[in-house]
Design goal:
alpha+beta, OB fold (Dihydrolipoamide Acetyltransferase, E2P), eight-stranded mixed β-sheet, about 35% strand
Length: about 475
């Protein structure tokens, strides 16, 4: 056997190499169709004795040959593959390069288990520490799922790692740092039964993608990167903490606090009055580009009737595969006859101290404002007498303070250009967190204008407390 080459030394400049590594993650075989190019592919993540990690992808005949021969957790030697720069759209490992096996002469041989190679190479960060690092990046997290949403199906565009109709579920994971973050689970992970999440399990997650699209959140799609093994020391520590004082902790959610204009993010912070001024700007209305804003609001009114004074329900019957509205027979224009599922679509008036604004809300916002899924609200409406419908819906007004992501889009109605406002995301936020943020904003602005000495965030937090 050729001399073993360390994974950390793999590059496009080294053509002859042989690595010995454990398969720590194995994806399922999938097919792809890119016009003139069709084929199949699956990928594995490799870990060697020095802790080096690299992604390997198998294509076409090579994929068909090895998908059933190599197993997750086993040790093999790998040679005769081509090395290329890692594609960050699909590869979240830290190695600059990745390996592709597409030739039938790929040399992959099983080895006896090597205890020098770990089962998994963990590099955990606390949730709080994530606020000090600029996204995008990947990291390992360990914590307890203390909140979760129901799974839903969304359509993922072609050209991504996941294509077609994919399950999606949002969870919140907290740890001993007293902070929590929202993480989106995809595919088979999102399809885990609700009973699993209801038990508030402690989990370890490998290679969570941290992004900041207006809000700092995490994303995980591989079930093999989701561990509940209680023999893992980090899981043991978090379980003991949760059973002791953790379950009574008042968490700071960094998705709400750190992202989307609160301590970071690219979406500007604004008031309702300023958002409406933007929507009335004639230059803005003459274009087609949308603008996004963050703001603190309260829901002060929910629309319950349409123009004909008939009940306006805050939901509609949707196709569970594409979320399109189904007709009265339960048929979708794309997927035919389906079992319809209620989805939120409602109109609500939000207000702050400067003004109020009517906005359209959808599934995620509806779950926050109404506190339950659209299916449960529909059941409640059906069990309520017609004259009690308005009171049932309006009982959800003034439910607390929210951080809202508002989209302003130029629209045309009866030949007139006007703004259309939508609540893209609505999340509950504690009044003290909102107050602390506003205090920091005031002090930062004053420091910038030379009205006070240089602003110190830690001092501001101490004073606010």
């Amino acid at each position: 056997m050729a001399a073993i080459f360390p994974i950390r030394e793999i590059s496009s400049y080294n053509r002859k190499w042989c690595i010995k590594a454990r398969i720590t993650n194995k994806q399922e075989l999938r097919t792809f169709d890119k016009g003139m190019t069709k084929g199949s592919v699956f990928s594995v993540d490799l870990l060697d004795a020095e802790g080096g990690e690299i992604r390997c992808s198998f294509f076409n005949e090579c994929a068909q040959k090895f998908v059933g021969e190599i197993e997750k957790g086993k040790v093999y030697t790998f040679a005769n593959g081509s090395v290329k720069v890692a594609n960050r759209r699909y590869n979240n490992l830290n190695h600059q390069y990745e390996i592709a096996f597409s030739e039938i002469n790929a040399d992959i041989k099983p080895c006896e288990d090597d205890t020098a190679i770990k089962a998994m190479n963990w590099n955990f960060m606390s949730v709080r520490a994530l606020t000090n690092k600029q996204p995008p990046f990947t990291t390992d997290l360990c914590g307890t799922i203390h909140q979760f949403q129901s799974a839903s199906m969304i359509r993922v565009k072609k050209g991504t790692a996941e294509e077609g109709d994919v399950a999606k579920r949002m969870i919140s994971v907290g740890d001993q740092s007293g902070h929590t973050m929202d993480i989106t689970l995809w595919g088979s992970l999102a399809d885990l039964p609700d009973t699993f999440f209801e038990k508030q399990p402690t989990i370890a997650m490998k290679n969570v993608g941290i992004r900041d699209w207006g809000n700092r959140t995490g994303s995980l799609s591989q079930k093999t990167n989701f561990v509940t093994d209680e023999s893992l020391p980090e899981i043991q520590k978090n379980m003991e903490w949760w059973e002791g004082s953790g379950k009574n902790t008042t968490f700071t959610n960094i998705t709400q606090v750190q992202g989307g204009g609160i301590g970071g993010g690219k979406t500007p912070w604004s008031t309702i009055a300023d958002i409406k001024l933007c929507g009335q700007d004639q230059i803005f209305l003459s274009g087609n580009d949308s603008k996004y804003f963050n703001t603190f609001v309260r829901c002060c009114n929910l629309r319950t009737t349409d123009r004909d004074q008939k009940h306006q329900f805050p939901y509609y019957d949707a196709c569970p595969k594409c979320n399109r509205k189904v007709d009265v027979t339960g048929s979708c224009v794309e997927h035919g006859q389906v079992t319809a599922a209620p989805r939120y679509m409602f109109s609500a008036c939000y207000a702050d101290k400067t003004d109020s604004i009517w906005m359209t809300g959808f599934e995620d916002s509806g779950k926050t404002v109404f506190g339950v899924g659209a299916d449960k609200l529909k059941q409640a409406v059906e069990q309520t007498p017609p004259d009690g419908f308005s009171n049932l819906i309006k009982s959800h007004q003034f439910g607390g303070m929210y951080k809202a992501v508002v989209r302003v889009k130029p629209d045309e109605y009866q030949g007139e250009r006007r703004p259309k406002y939508s609540a893209v995301r609505v999340e509950p936020i504690a009044a003290d967190v909102a107050a602390e943020f506003m205090y920091e904003q005031i002090m930062s602005t004053a420091a910038t204008n030379g009205q006070v000495s240089a602003y110190n965030p830690s001092t501001a937090v101490a004073l606010a407390a």
